[in-house]
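Students often ask why we bother encoding 3D structure as a string. The short answer is that it lets us treat folding as translation between two languages. Here is a chain of 123 residues written in the first language.
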Amino acid sequence: VQLQASGGGLVQAGGSLRLSCAASGRTFSSYVMGWFRQAPGKDREFVARISWSFSSPDYADSVKGRFTISRDTAKNTVYLLMNSLKPEDTAVYYCAARLGYSVRAIAEEFAYWGQGTQVTVSS
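And here it is in the second language, the structure alphabet:
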């Protein structure tokens, strides 16, 4: 499984960014795709996840109502649309994949990871 994240950048508070994660190397119909983030000095934390086949998006409380995860099965790409960005959203964002759903949406439950993409929100 190869995951390639892109779309990070510098944005002012209140702005928007869309991250993309291109997936390859497998048929992903049974996979769950996730986005995580890690700020300096902090643990990697869950942001959002989505089932490749059934959608069923799930979000961390801190981003609910502002972020939207989606997938384009034809393009094998997962997106994270981030609106109303806040300085506390600043982090390296990672896309991840695991086979099947897990009860806990934590980094340890995901087997495959892409490289990170930096998101910086200025106040």
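Translate back mentally: The mean pLDDT is 96. Keep this in mind for the problem set.
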